[in-house]
Amino acid sequence: MLTTEERFMQMAIRLAHRGIGRPSREPLAGAVIVADDRVVGCGYASERQPVPAIIAALDKAGGLASGATLYTNIEPCYDRSDEESCVRMLVECRLARVVVGATKQTQHSQQGNGILSELVSRRIEVDTGVWEHGCREVNEKYYKYSATGLPFVTVTFAQSLDGRIATGTGDSQWISGAAARRFAHQLRREHDVILVGIGTVLADDPRLTVRLVKGRSPLRIVVDSRLRIPLISRALANGAASHTLVVTGKDADGARIRAITDMGAEILQLAGAPNHSGVDLVRLFEELGRRGIASVLVEGGKGIITSLISARAVDRLATVIAPKLIGQGTEAIGDLGITRLNEAIAFSSVHIRRLGSDIIFDGRLSADDTNL
Ligand SMILES: NC(=O)c1ccc[n+]([C@@H]2O[C@H](COP(=O)([O-])OP(=O)(O)OC[C@H]3O[C@@H](n4cnc5c(N)ncnc54)[C@H](OP(=O)(O)O)[C@@H]3O)[C@@H](O)[C@H]2O)c1
């Protein structure tokens, strides 16, 4: 049974979700203003309305904000020099109390921005930690990025009940049903980047754009150390809707590089991974982080997924399990060098649900939620 406080905080989280589609380095924020147990204003920040959630909620509440309580899932931003800062607005609107679900601090950074003590000094009552885990999970990409400078990495694939992502001939379309494919496009919309290996481009020729739900298409990345990508591949087309970055090795062929950049794609040359002939994916994530990219959706295939899980570079696994048996075929994940069960990779915060006849397994790999 939820308390009244938790109910209002969950409402703030639902509002925050409406902001999905903004760059992941910006936290998702929702705000609910409550007077006499009644919601008098609510707001969220989104691509279309970039006004801070709290300001939007105060705007809706008008004079009813006086003496009211504000519920927000994340500590608001505060810039002392900013005339429009949330603190000034909260004081001017005579708000009595602010309830913050989660501060901006993580286990690795003390990055709070001082707004809470500023509010207390202005005689506004402040409480924190209501429905805290849910508030942190909604901003898990933001927290990981602000604590480490690295993007949050989600791996997704559709597999048969016997763990195959393609048949022995490489056929993989479609393992999952229509509802699960919409879920996959929703995941695309929630990330800054979609990444695949060259094997997936050669086998499936995916477009890697958002089509089955509304939203912008993220940057597309193809990891291709020998530049085998065909110039007619769909991941290089449709440049106006989505930009493509092809990541390759230091010694890639110059003529091939020019042919690909002539298609409108960007080439990034990185040194190979130690003990591996392919691209160093950890180094790639460091570079993406430097470019302000805070989330990556990895859509396969087996080679890239196995490398990333082996390197313990995955934060979330969202797998679609279809009620089908394929038998011999391509397994989702190859050898991880695990010989004992107590070395098996564990999950935390697992969510399981049904979509049509498919099952979605959605779990976090960091057993102790270290990102949060
Ligand atoms: N069911 C699903 O959801 C789903 C999704 C995606 C793919 N698939 C299936 O998966 C199969 C493709 O699997 P795949 O393993 O060939 O494809 P992949 O993982 O997309 O690509 C693997 C290739 O990426 C390159 N690479 C570069 N750096 C790498 C690194 N650090 N680690 C691993 N690979 C690196 C390598 O080629 P170079 O050495 O030439 O660079 C490697 O051969 C297809 O049958 C496809 O249909 C299924």
Topology:
Layout: H1 4-17, E1 30-35, E2 38-44, H2 53-61, E3 69-74, H3 86-92, E4 97-102, H4 115-121, E5 125-128, H5 132-138, H6 140-148, E6 152-160, E7 164-167, H7 178-189, E8 193-197, H8 198-204, E9 219-223, E10 244-249, H9 254-262, E11 266-270, H10 281-290, E12 295-298, H11 302-310, E13 316-322, E14 329-331, E15 348-355, E16 358-364
Parallel strand pairs: 3-4, 4-5, 6-12, 6-13, 8-9, 8-12, 9-10, 10-11
Antiparallel strand pairs: 1-2, 1-3, 7-14, 13-16, 15-16
The structure holds NADP nicotinamide-adenine-dinucleotide phosphate.
NADP nicotinamide-adenine-dinucleotide phosphate binds next to β6, β7, β8, α8 and α11.
Summarize the structure in words.
By secondary structure, the chain is α/β, with parallel strands linked by helices. 27% of the residues lie in helices and 25% in strands. The chain contains eleven helices and 16 strands. The chain has a nine-stranded mixed β-sheet. Strands 2-1-3-4-5 form a five-stranded mixed β-sheet, with helices on both faces. Strands 7-14 form a two-stranded antiparallel ribbon. The radius of gyration is 23 Å and the shape is elongated. Residues 157-158, 165-166, 170, 172, 175, 196-200, 203-204, 223-226, 228, 273, 276-279, 281, 299-304, 307, 330 line the site of NADP nicotinamide-adenine-dinucleotide phosphate.
